[in-house]
Specification:
The complex is a heterodimer of chains A (332) and B (331).
Chain A (H helix, E strand, L loop, with lengths): L28 H9 L1 H9 L1 H18 L1 H4 L40 H37 L1 H15 L3 H15 L2 H35 L3 H8 L4 H13 L1 H24 L10 H9 L8 H28 L5
Chain B lengths: L1 H28 L3 H5 L6 H10 L6 H13 L13 H36 L4 H15 L2 H15 L12 E3 L2 E3 L4 H34 L2 H8 L4 H39 L4 H10 L3 H29 L17
Antiparallel strand pairs in B: 1-2
Classes of the chains: A mainly alpha (332), B mainly alpha (331).
Family (chain B): Belongs to the binding-protein-dependent transport system permease family.
Organism (chain B): Roseospira visakhapatnamensis
Main location (chain B): membrane
Chain lengths: 332, 331
């Protein structure tokens, strides 16, 4: 289990899942892969029923949302199929429910199951894009800081320290607020999805940078780097082609856990009304819409998207936890 | 020791300067303040005169210094949306947020610590397993969803608790408190649980982990060997030594509680600073955004500074090397 360590760093807010990853480790991609195919990891995978269930749920949810156009009963974006008369239909097992709408409908008569599947697709897409963005930014800066050292390192890590003393959601909110002020109103509407990806990405790069910087500083003193330097290779080439593959192991674990965080952050922003517009409803937007009808008794409009969100985040979190433990026996 | 404190202080000042720069950049470059202040039919000459009067044509460094000077005196200008001084708005809203954060912190400690102790001492009991499962769900549930579910169950279905606002408040000087009325206390229950749940799971896991570690140490074995009762060993010796990190983490978490209050306050329409900030983002009310940012940053920096200095005082090992504590990544 993870344990936030009471380390006296400069006010690093204690992030429950991933703080242990800040320690430099030497798990290369190839090393991790070889070991993943070795029996150890598969053994621990088979032996953990919780992980098996989590993997099953995650694959099911991600698969269903990726295949939403094929699986979903209706297309929630097709306006011509919307029937306002069917609005507020309760789930099929409740009184007044219809089997056409298994989970009921929302205020516009959209089938909730379809809306959730499409919404999860958007949530996952935004989450994954933010993770990739944060990863590129963090790994790049971390590699630069660790390999270059000196004032470059000091500057980058100082910025990271400052940012780490604020919660990610605050940074994301701020970036979003600034974008709102800078972009004209109609343009902002079209750009909302990119703004969100940028905001979440910027708020999450520090974790990657710290980890990569730590491992890079260890790696750069090894013989193979020395050899490369003596051979006269360009420093950038050494960093990218030789050091980078050897520091990527922990990054993949961070990315898994970060995906859960990114999905939650996106949902929170959308719920707060500064995320994705109702024309591109993510799970957070659906919950926000449903929240307006909580008091009039239409609970299903909020509860089912919420449940989908929790299942998604929980299963990804569990997988991330397992992956970290499996790849790094020291933490067990 | 003195060098460490001075270095740490300088570092804090640096952070505040950076934050002030961001706040100032918001002010100066996002949107046109003049457009936000005057009506459609103000002539170009009037606008230019106003610009000159407000010092908006001065070089940026001069404007920045003026911004810092004003901010230090608590002057953040007028809110674009409310037309009132931002400082007044913040002072008005501060008690609501601080009381909510306090209640959430008390809830997290009072529930989290006993749960942590139980899961550490009776690891195999079904209750311990239930607690751990709850903590996992508590970490995976986003704050806003917890709030919505609590409202659905306790306000809509059961009708026990109010779902929004602070209830009746009593005015004591400039401070408005909800602790003195029944409806005020009742209104605080759901938001405090929502806000405190994440911290509670954090404290529980921390207490459990620390406790498990301490229980393995020699002095606990020795205490057992001396024939002390389980109660004396567990609570008199073990618990006492687990509480130092718990207090530190709780202190460090204070800042994020106040930041996460933004979400809780929006869900429960709690009239605090977080709701003000949220509305400021929605309406691009830059002065409020900048002021909130600087205020929260000051709070974070102060808490971190105090915790770091306390740490060095409490743990002499950290004094070696002077600035070792300040380094983020093994400097």
């Amino acid at each position: 289990m993870t344990r936030p360590r009471a380390r006296p760093t400069t006010g690093e807010p204690v992030v429950p899942a991933s703080s242990d990853l800040a320690a430099p480790r030497r798990t290369g991609v190839t090393g991790a892969l070889v070991r993943a195919l070795d029996s150890d990891v598969f053994y621990s995978f088979r032996r953990s029923p919780v992980t098996l269930v989590a993997a099953l749920v995650a694959v099911l949810l991600i698969g269903a949302s990726l295949a939403a156009p094929l699986v979903a009963p209706t297309d929630p974006f097709a306006l011509e199929t919307l029937d306002l008369m069917a609005a507020f239909t309760p789930p099929m097992w409740a009184e007044g429910g219809e089997s056409v709408f298994p989970l009921g409908t929302d205020d516009q008569g959209r089938d909730l199951l379809s809306a959730i599947l499409y919404g999860m697709r958007i949530s996952l897409a935004v989450g994954a894009a933010s993770v990739v963005f944060a990863m590129l930014l963090g790994v790049g800066l971390g590699l630069l800081a660790g390999y270059a050292g000196g004032w470059v390192d000091a500057l980058i890590m100082r910025v990271a320290d400052v940012q780490l003393s604020f919660p990610a959601i605050l940074i994301a909110l701020l970036v979003d607020g600034v974008a709102r002020g800078l972009l004209p109103r109609d343009l902002h509407h079209d750009m909302a999805i990119y703004v969100i990806i940028f905001a979440i990405g910027v708020s999450g790069w520090v974790q990657y940078a710290r980890t990569v910087r730590g491992s890079t500083m260890v790696e750069k003193n090894r013989e193979y780097v020395m050899a490369a330097i003596i051979m006269g290779l360009h420093p950038g080439l050494i960093a990218l082609r030789h050091v980078l593959p050897n520091v990527m192991g922990p990054v993949l674990v961070i990315a898994t856990i970060h995906l859960a965080v990114a999905v939650i952050t996106e949902a929170t922003l959308s719920f707060l009304g500064v995320g994705l517009p109702p024309t591109e409803p993510s799970l957070g937007t659906l919950i926000r819409i449903g929240n307006d009808f909580l008091f009039s008794g239409e609970w299903w409009i909020t509860v089912f998207p919420g449940l989908a969100l929790v299942l998604l985040v929980l299963s990804v979190n569990l997988l991330g936890d397992w992956l970290r433990d499996a790849l790094n026996p020291k933490l067990r | 020791m003195a060098t460490f404190i001075v270095r740490r202080l300088l570092q804090s000042v640096l952070v505040m300067v950076v934050v002030a720069l961001v706040g100032f950049a918001l002010f100066a470059y996002v949107g046109d303040p003049i457009n936000n202040m005057v009506g459609q039919d103000t002539s170009f000459e009037d606008r230019e005169r106003l610009r000159e009067d407000l010092g908006l044509n001065d070089p940026a460094p001069v404007q920045f210094l003026r911004f810092v000077g004003n901010a230090v005196q608590g002057d953040f200008g007028l809110s674009y949306r409310h037309g009132r001084p931002v400082a007044d708005l913040l002072v008005e809203r501060a008690p609501a947020t601080l009381e909510l954060s306090f209640a959430a912190g008390v809830f997290a400690l009072l529930v989290g610590v006993p749960m942590g102790i139980h899961t550490a001492l009776w690891r195999q009991s079904w209750l311990a397993k239930a607690f751990l499962t709850i903590s996992l769900i508590g970490i995976s549930l986003p704050t806003f969803l917890i709030g919505i579910l609590l409202i659905l169950v306790f306000a809509v279905w059961l009708g026990w608790m109010p779902s929004f606002g602070r209830g009746e408040v009593v005015q004591i000087g400039w401070w408005s408190t909800g602790f003195l009325t029944a409806s005020g206390l009742k209104a605080m229950v759901l938001p405090a649980i929502t806000l405190g749940l994440f911290q509670m799971t954090l404290i529980m896991r921390l207490v459990r982990a620390e406790m498990l570690e301490v229980l393995r140490t020699d002095y606990i074995k020795f205490a057992r060997a001396r024939g002390l009762s389980a109660r004396a060993v567990n609570f008199g010796h073990a618990l006492k030594n687990t509480l130092v990190p718990v207090i530190t983490i709780t202190g460090l978490q204070l800042g994020s509680v106040i930041a996460f209050a933004i979400i809780t306050e929006t869900v429960f329409q709690w009239p605090g600073m977080g709701l003000l900030f949220m509305q400021a983002i929605e309406f691009v009310d830059i002065p409020v955004m900048a002021a909130y940012l600087v205020l929260v940053a000051a709070l974070f920096v102060m808490i971190n500074l105090v915790v770091d200095i306390l740490y060095v005082i409490v743990d002499p090992r950290l004094r070696i090397g002077g600035g070792a504590v300040g380094g983020g990544g093994g400097r």
